[in-house]
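Note to self: the last two entries modelled the partners one at a time, which told us nothing about the interface. This time every component goes in together.
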Amino acid sequence: MTSALPRATPAADLAERLLSGDRLALSRMISAIEAGRDDARDAMRDLYPRTGRAHIVGVTGPPGSGKSTLTTRLALEYRARQKTVGIVAVDPTSPYTGGAILGDRVRMMELHSDQGVFMRSMATRGVMGGLARSTLDVVLLLDAYGKDVVILETVGVGQDEVEIARAADTTLVVGVPNLGDDIQTIKAGILEIADVLVVNKADLPGADRLVADLRAMLQLGEQRTAWPTPIQLTTATDGTGVAELVDRIAAHRAFLEETGTWRLRRADSARRQVRAIVEDHVQRRLERLTAGPEWTARFASIAAREQDPYTVADDVLQEVVHDGQRN
Amino acid sequence: MPESHPLRVLIAKPGLDGHDRGAKVIARALRDAGFEVIYTGIRQTPEMIAEAALQEDVDAIGLSILSGAHMTLFPRVIDELHKRGMDDVVIWAGGIIPASDMPKLRELGIQAVFGPGSPTAETIDFLRGLPTAVER
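The predicted structure of the combined assembly is written out below.
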């Protein structure tokens, strides 16, 4: 059967329709971006001036810390405050099969009937730079669509996820009592990216202890900005502390704006985004190029010690750049 | 140049029965076959299923049902999808569905039904045989 909006619809049309509030167009544009469609990338250029209004809130933390439930509660609180919400939930793709189970919606079904919320699950699809690029683009699409707040939820393990969380204006790092990995979390450098530390499952014994530990850790590290990282206790299952958390997020945004840090931070985010786009381009060209017969032959000649890998690498690099100029 | 991407599939349980073992088994099998599976949990209304399908832009929806209410619920799911302009989503079903209902379900647009005991490979083969999103 046919659709009102076939999947092959040019991205420029999808972009135009999503700006006028078409949710299916938004959804299909996200798919086009995820699939790496060239026309989607071109359409992003035109959409970009329409972005920049949304407050991007990153939520990260170890598996099982209650990120999805907390994200749902945050969305409900924002809706109670008349703000529209976009949610991007990133789950890992299995490195063995390439498949993924995206289960965040199970906890977010309370939001289903509210047209003010749009939630999209994404699998990491195993591409390092590509993940950072496409998640950011999806955030930008929700921004262009007009969402006031975009919540970006990632598992806080691994450099890539941490990088994504850093794309946010305000990053929440979620911990829970008695996980036994508090020190692990800190080792991974995740504490440093927190604008607000959240101790979720605060009804469990050990929450006060974790707060004390985190406070001690914060005092140990040198303070990088004038923003004193607050610690907020929450119980996401019943919503305790969530309104206060939203207040703290708002206070952080006010701080960023008052101190001029907002622009600095977004410029820093732009730097990472540009690098991610370049890495993505180079990586794709590199893969396409080196799969060709010409290079395969040269790799064989390296193996035979007729050429060396350093010289060939220089030649590949030149070719990648030329390939870029031709396109 | 459109690049290949994993097929996105929604596994949904419409209606009130709370037995989701079959749905979970198939979700897991599809993940292991390389699909991106969006799992929504039990007790879903047709609106919830259609809305999740829209926001996740899935290629196919698997409806798992054991309660016997499929002849009521499936047409409503299809109707909700239609309201959202998503007539191009492939729908299949699993669970306890009498053979006598099959012709009617096919007519409604349910493309396949896999009953109890069906090997998961049958569902995987069915989904792999679908035309890709670009072809549709």
